Amino acid sequence: MNPQFLKVLMDTTVIKLPRQTLASFGTTVVTYNMVTRPLYEALDGDKRREESVLRRGTVKAERPQIVTPGYLSRSEGFGAEAEEFMRELIRNGQADDPGILYTYSNELAQTEIVANRPEEVTERISNEIDLHSRPLEAVILGVDELWDVSLMKFIFDLTNNSAQANARDFTNTGRLRVNDGVPMDARIRFEDMFLEVENGNLDPSTLHKELEAWQLFDEYQDRFFRVLRGRTS
User: Fold this and answer.
1) Where are the domains of the chain?
2) Using CA atoms, how far apart are residues 197 and 201, in angstroms rounded to an integer?
């Protein structure tokens, strides 16, 4: 890992995780408060200032998916090292081992300079969250110049905090069962996607791409084309 990134991760503290874990069967939106010491303090050497940078935004976690290394090896968006790791799992006979895939997006809403040192600001915001019972809000003490890396530390902790409960939910509902290399969760997701296509809420190409990634288009193609004909009739 880049030594600079490692230092930022070591210097980042998640002061308050959301009390509510990520939903197992739906989308979760978490509000974050990223508090950092202004970069200009280190540059101009002015230690008399008592200011902080407060960034507020949301992290959207899509519904967790059960996937396999075989599926991921046919998906896009992974770097060369990740692809080689997945190929190694497949070579070792782990192509069908299920795992939970989390997908996130970040939207920064506002950035402002606020009075008081970062430690005081994080304490104040944490108290406000408790006072107003906001279960999907977090507080992070990060590093100004690489605050997005600090945000990744928070996302890692958020995922780690939710994974056990999500895995238990998937196990209890049978979604972790794998038949012929396909988790039950994927089969259930196909049903949801077919319904969305029928209702005009999902582009058929998205469903087609997902079926191809699981190498199941041939199995579902008759139904797929029936849905397409129904949309155009």
Assistant:
1) 3-64+102-172, 178-232
2) 6
Which parts of the chain have pLDDT scores under 70? 1, 42-49, 75-90, 93-95, 232-233
65-67 and 182-183 strand pairing: unpaired
Instruction: Give which of 110, 19, 23, 15 is closest to 61, Cα–Cα.
Output: 23
The structure tokens listed for 180 are 């012929």
Query: How many of the other CB atoms lie within 10 Å of CB of 180?
Result: 7
Residues 171 and 204: beta-carbon distance below 8 Å? no
User: DSSP character for 200?
Assistant: T
Q: Residue 225's Cα: distance from chain center in Å? A: 33
- 3-class secondary structure, 2: coil
The pLDDT value given to residue 44: 60
**Whole-angstrom distance, CA of residue 179 vs CA of residue 135:** 37
Q: What is the pLDDT of residue 77?
A: 58
The strand pairing partners of 33, in sequence order, are 56, 139
Which residue shows structure tokens 């069908």? 96
What is d(CA 199, CA 196) in angstroms, rounded to the nearest whole number?
5
Residue-wise pLDDT tens digits, 204-219: 999 999 999 999 999 9
